[in-house]
Amino acid sequence: MNRKLGLILTILVSLTLAACSKPDESTPEPATKAPSTQPSSGPVYPYSGTSLTADELRALGIYGDPRDEKVVYFEYNSTAIDRRSQVILGAHAYYLKQNAGTRVSLEGHADERGTRDYNLALGERRANVVSDYLNANSAASNNQTISYGEERPIDTAHTESAWQKNRRVEIKY
Fold first, then answer.
1. Is 166:155 a contact under the CB 8 Å cutoff?
2. Domains identified in the chain and CATH numbers
3. Three-class SS state of 153
4. How far apart are the C-alpha atoms of 56 and 67, rounded to whole Å?
5. Residue-by-residue pLDDT tens, the chain, 173 positions
6. What is the pTM of this model?
7. Would you give the DSSP letter of residue 76?
8. 12 three-state secondary structure
């Protein structure tokens, strides 16, 4: 049931992103929004596939182009993609759509809690969820997934802060 809900959420997000207009890719630097009655909130990064302003990206913890973010994080024992990760993955999907044939390696990881086999399976599920999201939003399927489970932690401490850093999928071109 949880997998179906995740798939439905992925499809809804895909349709939402597909409905967004595609800006001119020839813009080498961040463009600014057209003047409006609301105060300006910073540049927009149209070439990254998002129409969010710099302020909106910063509110999600993204500073600059979302494509510069190569890691998406997950909650404990979860494969759900949060809003911040959706923006990051949307930018990568946009890039992949514009650069057909680009190969991507998606490395799934888990924190140290749980058995080795469970964490390998969880890392694989996370990598597959990211792969499915990218495929659904870029019409590309050059993704290779691999799970390292708990074997390659970013932080070896035994704290919630360390565990949060270790629950991730790394995007490698």
1. yes
2. 2-20+65-172 (3.30.1330.60)
3. coil
4. 15
5. 565 555 565 565 555 545 444 443 333 333 333 333 333 345 555 545 678 888 999 999 999 899 999 999 999 999 999 999 999 999 999 999 888 889 999 999 999 999 999 999 999 999 999 999 999 987 677 889 999 999 999 999 999 999 999 999 999 99
6. 0.72
7. T
8. helix
